[in-house]
Amino acid sequence: MRPSLQLRIGQHLTMTPQLQQAIKLLQLSTLDLQQEIQEALESNPLLEADDNQQQSNEASATETNGLDGSEDATPTQDEITTSEALTQNEIPEELSVDSTWEESFSAGVSNTGMASGNDDTVYQGETTENIHDHLTWQMELTPFTETDKTIAVAIIDAIDDAGYLTVTTEDIQESLGDDEIELDEVEAVLKRIHMFDPIGSGACSIQHCLLIQLDQFDAGTPFLKEAKLVINNHIDLLANRDFRTIMRKTRLKEPQLQEVMRLIHSLNPRPGDAIVQNEEQYIIPDVSVFKKNGRWVVELNPETAPKLNINNHYASLAKTSSAEDSQFIRSHLQEAKWFIKSLESRNETLMKVSNCIVQQQQGFFEHGPEAMRPMVLNDVAEAVEMHESTISRVTTQKYMHTPRGIFELKYFFSSHVSTENGGECSSTAIRALIKKLVDAENPKKPLSDSKMAELLADQGINVARRTIAKYRESLGIPPSNQRKSLI
């Protein structure tokens, strides 16, 4: 074989550091983005946050339905658009030190997700102590002997998050490893812990927990005796809401059983839930949607990221510094430029996707979840001419503040279910209809899954019973036999 030269033309994607940075920032949540920005500010002396500069009013919000597309401002001679920045790999040798860098490279956004000047940022979630800390705090305030305190610590350690004792008193006695501690002592300390707040902590079962709470009522409480009778002897029937059998076995009339159930409903079968254990989960909306002059307006929230500028003083030193210092400045200047441009690209993509979502789901904003249209990631990807993976990144852990609440962008995507007339209905809308039916049902005769399927079929939505059951379970709604109530 003779050696020869061949020319081939092909295309391939190169993951440059700049492109990797843009993708990384795009998929970050708001809190992670703020941390990333803070790290960039600390590591790059040419990057600074302009906290005092007022947000510009030139880039106004876009509107849908129309959402009127806003026109891009005409760039000046020294400005670089995002698309041009993504193709530029080098900075010029001669830096224009007279130009204002913050005018050319600004990742700040002009509009807020809430009313201008409103400091009431929306946060969700709070933290409190767990039940073990709560019980330990009360134990420290209780006049226990050293031996009893040792027993109390072992008991509290064996209590789960719901407030129930997970081991027997014999196991606790054995775990202490002290032959002088009698079982009666362990049981006596456990009874004192039962009286801690919340009442019933350390109970061995739901039945035991409810009886402990009933013992705290005044002896003259109406229907107290009957409530103890039902819990003692008919807890299984109560769990199955078999009220007819309970009335037959206890010989209670329906009005009497209603009063008994009202008293039982005042009890807490999971005392540990009274002590909130959720970790901090703050939600800052990335975009805001509101109606203005009859149109739905989408705006970015500038509080999600500070406005970043290039430090003009340090940038101008590139000309007068030594070769080594000049190279340091130029390197950090290029990093600062790309970081700001990546933030701008993130904001532009977020706005495009948000606008498309609002345009497609205006029925939701007008009438609620029941009017949600079926929509998948590919629908938005085709509308904004981006890849489906990009849409997935930009809608994950990004939140929209609407008059109906705060929703993750992924909330607006749902599969479709065919209707009787050949149309399509969103699975989110079906869930909303199921919830509406359950809220309006007679508690004495709740709707079964089959009945709800029939009611939806009357509205032209053909959904199988098993699909109704799946959607009902996803909403956390128990089956009809568990929803039955006399009250």
Could you explain the architecture of this structure?
This protein is of the alpha+beta class and 487 residues long. The chain has three domains: 149 residues, no CATH class; 144 residues, no CATH class; 70 residues, Arc Repressor Mutant, subunit A (Orthogonal Bundle), CATH 1.10.10.60. The protein is 47% helix and 7% strand. The chain has 22 helices and nine strands. The strands form three sheets. A five-stranded mixed beta sheet has the order 2-4-3-6-7, covered by helices on one side. Strands 1-5 form a two-stranded antiparallel sheet. A two-stranded antiparallel ribbon has the order 8-9. A hairpin with a 2-residue loop joins β3 and β4. It is extended and about 95 Å long.
The span between the termini is 93 Å
Mean pLDDT: 81
Could you say which structural class the secondary elements and strand pairing correspond to?
A: alpha+beta
Radius of gyration: 32 Å
The helicity comes to 40-55%
Give the number of DSSP strands: 9
In the sheet with the most strands, the strands line up as 2-4-3-6-7
- Poorly predicted tracts of residues: 53-128
Name the overall outline. extended
What is the oligomeric state here?
single chain
Strand-residue proportion? 5-15%
Individual helix count? 22
Kindly give the count of domains: 3
Q: What summary fits the major beta sheet?
A: 5 strands, mixed
